[in-house]
């Protein structure tokens, strides 16, 4: 049977899909940015479906706290680069797909050169700076963008930068024109996420990619789907396009590469006073030092070292009681402790040495879990 591949037999049997639909998948190249909670199911299902070429962008390593939701990895993979582990396992899933890995963080310096080689981009990142950057690059290159996000018990999916039947073409900035500051929104490290949720949303993202490529069904063009797993409630928000959002996007490659997306989203690039887990532990033993947990009292994991708890929300009214010369701060991911360091520096100036734990207690926990393994 000409062009028959038993691997895709169930696709061939589908009405309005068949071998023609499968050939469209085989001819496509899809870029997945982020190989974490969303990226794992997106990659698994796209590669199983027979996409011809898949690119993976990520520079993170596997940690123990990933395994509750990033089911492409196992305990044996802790400490290894995600893109390398993912590529090796996905090649075994479907050796017919050409996999290209980019062991790097997506940035304004490399995004255009990477994205230009693909037909569709899937945003599986977990921070606003990356989302705005990816969106702007896709608008500049006129690439469809499949967006996904998760937080606690709720997820979102949308398809951007594709014209609907009315000629409307919305992008991420139509949904969120102004980025929140880094300390205004919690990420999964701080707020948590139920492990199954990224699997659900990631599969939805993969589904939208397949629908886009094969032109079956109704794609979420200019629509934001929100799913609440606690009550299985789904609602769809219409996104209104318009020229105003395009005014916020760099118009040229030179302008794009000059854009500082971390600054745009209020992320400190210099990270003044940031300490690695090893340096944080070492400095905590110095005399006349106080270690302050600026998380709320209910947050886990609890610290197993000497510290006091002053939530960021209470810091301004309690900092007069801090008498020690050296102050070490930590939170869940490093964002709130960085803000706390700024508040205390404004109060005490150079009379005290103020430092914070970069990437938070989760980085400290991962550091010692890696050593145990």
TrEMBL record:
Which organism's genome codes for this protein? Flavobacterium psychrolimnae
Q: What does this protein do?
A: Catalyzes the adenylation by ATP of the carboxyl group of the C-terminal glycine of sulfur carrier protein MoaD.
- Residue ranges of every copy of the Rhodanese domain listed in the record: 285-373
PROSITE patterns assigned: RHODANESE_3
GO MF, any single term: molybdopterin-synthase adenylyltransferase activity
Q: What family does the database annotate?
A: Belongs to the HesA/MoeB/ThiF family.
Self-association and partners: Homodimer. Forms a stable heterotetrameric complex of 2 MoeB and 2 MoaD during adenylation of MoaD.
Q: What is its EC number?
A: 2.7.7.80
Q: What is this protein called?
A: Molybdopterin-synthase adenylyltransferase
* Catalysed reactions, semicolon-separated: [molybdopterin-synthase sulfur-carrier protein]-C-terminal Gly-Gly + ATP + H(+) = [molybdopterin-synthase sulfur-carrier protein]-C-terminal Gly-Gly-AMP + diphosphate
**Pfam families per the UniProt record, alphabetical:** Rhodanese, ThiF
Under the heading SUPFAM superfamilies, the entry gives: Activating enzymes of the ubiquitin-like proteins
Q: CDD domains from the xrefs?
A: RHOD, ThiF_MoeB_HesA_family
Q: Which domain of life is it from?
A: Bacteria
Task: Keywords in alphabetical order, please.
Answer: ATP-binding, Nucleotide-binding, Transferase
Q: Which InterPro entries does the protein's record reference? A: Rhodanese-like_dom, Rhodanese-like_dom_sf, ThiF/MoeB/HesA, ThiF_NAD_FAD-bd, Ubiquitin-activating_enz
What's a GO cellular component annotated to this UniProt protein?
A: cytosol
């Amino acid at each position: 049977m000409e062009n028959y591949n038993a691997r895709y037999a169930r696709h061939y049997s589908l009405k309005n899909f068949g071998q023609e639909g499968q050939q469209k998948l085989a001819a496509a190249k899809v870029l997945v940015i982020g190989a974490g909670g969303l990226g794992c199911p997106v990659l698994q299902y796209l590669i199983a479906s027979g996409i011809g070429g898949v690119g993976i962008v990520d520079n993170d390593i596997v940690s123990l706290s990933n395994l509750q939701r990033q089911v492409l990895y196992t305990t044996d993979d802790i400490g290894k680069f995600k893109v390398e582990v993912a590529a090796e396992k996905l090649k075994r899933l479907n050796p017919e797909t050409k996999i290209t890995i980019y062991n790097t963080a997506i940035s304004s310096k490399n995004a255009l050169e990477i994205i230009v080689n693909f037909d569709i981009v899937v945003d599986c990142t977990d921070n606003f700076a990356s989302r705005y950057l990816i969106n702007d690059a896709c608008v500049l290159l006129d690439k469809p963008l499949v967006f996904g996000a998760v937080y606690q018990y709720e997820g979102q999916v949308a398809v951007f930068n594709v014209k609907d039947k009315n000629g409307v073409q919305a992008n991420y900035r139509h949904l969120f024109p102004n980025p929140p500051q880094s300390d205004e929104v919690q990420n999964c490290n701080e707020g948590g996420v139920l492990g199954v949720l990224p699997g659900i949303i990631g599969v939805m993202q993969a589904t939208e990619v397949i629908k886009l490529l094969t032109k079956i069904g109704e794609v979420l063009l200019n629509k934001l789907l929100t799913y609440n797993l606690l009550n299985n409630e789904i609602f769809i928000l219409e996104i209104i396009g318009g020229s105003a959002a395009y005014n916020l996007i760099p118009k040229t490659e030179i302008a794009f590469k000059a854009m500082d997306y971390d600054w745009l989203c209020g992320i400190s690039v210099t990270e003044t006073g940031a300490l690695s887990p090893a340096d944080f532990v070492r400095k905590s033993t110095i005399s006349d030092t106080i270690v302050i947990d600026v998380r709320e009292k209910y947050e886990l994991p609890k610290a197993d070292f000497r510290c006091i708890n002053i939530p960021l929300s209470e810091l301004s009214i309690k900092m007069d009681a801090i008498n020690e010369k050296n102050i070490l701060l930590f939170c869940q991911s490093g964002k709130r402790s960085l803000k706390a360091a700024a508040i205390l520096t404004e109060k005490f100036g150079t009379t005290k040495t103020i430092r914070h734990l970069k990437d938070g207690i989760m980085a400290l926990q991962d550091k010692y879990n890696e050593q145990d393994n």
